[in-house]
Amino acid sequence: MFDLTGKKALITGSTQGIGFAVAGCLAAQGAVVYVNGASSEAKTKAAAERIKGAIPVTVDLSGVNCAEDMYAATGEVDILVLNASVQYRNAWDQITEEEFDRQMNVNFKSNVKLIQTYVPYMKKQGWGRIVTVGSVQQYKPHKDMLIYAATKCAQMSMVQNLAKQLAPYGITVNNLSPGVIETPRNEKALADKAYERQVLSGIPCGYAGTPEDCTAGALLLCSGEGRYLTGIDLVIDGGMHL
Ligand SMILES: NC(=O)c1ccc[n+]([C@@H]2O[C@H](COP(=O)([O-])OP(=O)(O)OC[C@H]3O[C@@H](n4cnc5c(N)ncnc54)[C@H](OP(=O)(O)O)[C@@H]3O)[C@@H](O)[C@H]2O)c1
Fold this sequence. Notes:
Layout: E1 8-11, H1 17-28, E2 32-37, H2 41-49, E3 55-58, H3 66-74, E4 79-82, H4 97-125, E5 128-133, H5 146-166, E6 171-178, H6 187-191, H7 193-200, H8 215-222, E7 233-236
Parallel strand pairs: 1-2, 1-4, 2-3, 4-5, 5-6, 6-7
């Protein structure tokens, strides 16, 4: 079950956190994975070295030519996990133009462009898997993350739209929405014990998840066995969205 031998998978934003765990899981099931990050070539390379057979690809998804650059580095892939995102905390009436654009570009626009770039091959071969990584904020937006939450909702709309259009080609399109997951992104915020207590009180399971809590769900959505799942939002959040 869940054998990905012969499949190529691109996981955006996979030098750490959830993306790194998903990349490791897909590689363990036999896929050749492309590990992507933007901040430094050394970081991308170091992350790829920790996953068997992984290939590092340093491309910044905020750039205008990000999809062309990514495709030039990877060629065709069978599985696209759109996981990279950026997040700014700021009151709704203080959001700057730069914060607005960067979140829209990395979290939403680049995903549309990557799908436009990689889907023609998936269509031709009659098989493909697209998984976007959303957030529990689709259900419970944080008051200081208006644009971030909105990009995740826009992404979910895209998933539903494309799932219907691409299903006849054997391509599934799904979203995976994590809740609070312990990754480098929220290390600093959760180090504040009072804040951590407040966050955990909103999670029915009573604890934060780990990146590994997201891997089984991602694997299912990327696998042959997941062929009849499309257009769904798989929420992995210990019940936080309820
Ligand atoms: N952690 C949570 O609690 C949580 C909750 C809900 C949803 N999520 C979602 O889950 C996904 C992963 O979150 P995470 O917590 O694992 O994130 P993270 O620890 O902040 O890691 C982000 C990853 O994205 C890459 N990245 C950032 N900007 C990029 C850009 N412009 N181009 C390409 N890559 C870029 C980073 O690579 P470099 O540093 O190498 O550039 C890094 O590998 C995100 O979509 C996030 O919105 C996370």
